[in-house]
Amino acid sequence: MRSRSRVQQRAGMVAIGIGVLGVALAGAFLGGAFGTSQAVGPASSHAFVGSGAPSESAGASESPNESSSPTASAAPTPVLVAAPLDGMPVSPAAAGQHVIAVMIDDLSPARPQSGFSDASVVWQAPAEGGIPRYMLLFQERTPKAVGPVRSARYYFIGWASEWKAAYVHAGGSPQALDTLRAKGSGQLVYNADQFAWGSYFWRVTTRFPPHNLYSDGKHLRELARRIGATAPPAKAVWRFGPDAPLDQRPQGGRIEVDYLANRIVYRYDRATNSYPRYVSGTVKQVDAGTKQPVAPKNVVIMRMVFGALNDGHPNKHRLEAQITGSGVAWIATNGHTIKGTWRKRSISSPTRFYDAAGHQVRLTVGQTFVQVMKTTDIVKIQDGKVPAAAGPSLSPGTAPSASPSARGGSVWAAI
Question: In which region does residue 182 sit, left (phi positive, over 0), alpha (psi from -120 to 50) or beta (all else)?
Answer without folding.
Answer: alpha
